[in-house]
Design a protein that fits this description.
This protein has 14 helices and three strands. The protein is mainly alpha-helical and about 325 residues long. The protein folds into two domains: about 130 residues; about 190 residues, hpI Integrase, Chain A, CATH 1.10.443. A hairpin with a 5-residue loop joins strand 1 and strand 2. Helix 2 packs across helix 5. The chain starts with a helix and ends in a 29-residue tail after the last helix. The relative contact order is 0.11.
């Protein structure tokens, strides 16, 4: 890490130009390493950001040239483009701060030119929003209530399985990868006597999610079908055999099928139908987050409950402690 390179920003001469992109490269590396050390991003995200930095270095991209950066970014995939924009934002923020804080009567115009250049760099990379993330695709209360009514009968194995599998994401806020990996051994009891799930999240981080009684009862009922052993979420084969586990892709297909059924039941208009017919596991998790926040207005508690550790994901998600006995899952009208 060339800290000296960044420190040169503090004493740039009035007439100097920001034509040494080593400053931006060093700032990006420092910002990414600092974010990892502060537990603001996961090891996996750090790897991806570092890879984006190394790629621009390898391709001889001049990060101080907004036009060159724009042309380069236009040739990247949407994912690579988003990663480059995110890491550039982190690194250039330090340069912009130094430029503003060190501005004086002698170098004001130069420092403001640096700020303008940084802003131009940000604007040069245009990332298309993913449809499922636009304004947060979440289900409405009416849609959730319809979904609950569409569950197969509770006296069937598929009915018991689907209530639990959907509930893990919609009522407990688990990611699809977490829902397909969690086992009966991950169920615990908090001091109040309520049931809770010990979740192994991204980056090996663990969190505890207190769940409402109806979900706990549903898990207990389904547990009797599988002897309360192994994975909770499982596939049910065409011949009725219950598998040991279920893949995330299979869960996505099941969720999407339910989305289509909800749309059919509601007679949804074209816009609403398009969203429901593309319903995904993360939309269930997002729905949980919205209802939990709407009920409690405790955005920090909900953020911790979701297991988000990166401040870049959304300003709402800050990892803080949440009371173990608070069953935020009571907020979702499912089960």
């Amino acid at each position: 890490m060339e800290l000296a390179t960044i420190e040169r920003m503090q004493n740039l001469p009035t007439g100097a130009a920001l034509n040494d992109d080593a400053i931006i490269f060093a700032a990006m590396r420092q910002a990414v390493d600092a974010a990892l050390a502060a537990d603001d991003i996961t090891v996996r995200t750090h790897y991806r950001y570092t890879k984006a930095i190394d790629r621009t270095k390898r391709d001889n991209v001049n990060l101080a040239d907004a036009v060159a950066l724009r042309d380069y970014a236009n040739g990247l995939s949407d994912t690579s483009k988003a990663q480059l924009k995110a890491v550039l934002k982190r690194g250039s923020a330090e340069i912009e701060f130094l430029a503003k804080s060190r501005a004086n009567a002698d170098n004001y115009m130069h420092m403001m030119a640096i700020v303008a250049n940084i802003q131009a760099l940000h604007a040069s990379i245009i990332v298309k929003s993913r449809p499922s993330l636009q304004k947060g695709h979440r289900m409405t209360r009416a849609q959730v209530e319809i979904l609950a009514r569409l569950m197969p009968p509770a006296d069937t194995e598929r009915g018991r399985r689907d209530r639990v599998m959907i509930g893990l994401m919609l009522v407990a806020g688990l990611r699809v990868a977490e829902a397909t990996e969690i086992t009966f051994d991950h169920i615990t009891v908090v001091p109040s006597g309520a049931a809770a799930l010990k979740v192994d999240g991204k980056g090996g981080k663990q969190r505890q999610v207190t769940i409402k009684e109806s979900l706990a009862i549903a898990i207990e009922a389904w547990g009797r079908d599988v002897q309360h052993e192994g994975n909770i979420a499982r596939a049910i084969m065409r011949n009725g055999t219950i598998a040991d586990k279920i893949s995330p892709n299979s869960v996505r297909k099941i969720v999407k099928t339910y989305g289509v059924k909800v749309a059919d039941m509601l007679g949804a208009n074209s816009a609403e139908r398009k969203q429901l017919c593309a319903l995904a596991p993360h939309d269930l998790r997002r729905t949980f987050a919205w209802f939990a926040y709407d009920k409690t207005k405790d955005i920090e508690g909900v953020s911790k409950l979701l297991g988000h550790s990166s401040a870049t994901v959304t300003r709402r998600y800050i990892g803080l402690d949440t009371p173990e006995d608070t069953a935020y899952s009571d907020a979702v009208p499912f089960l």
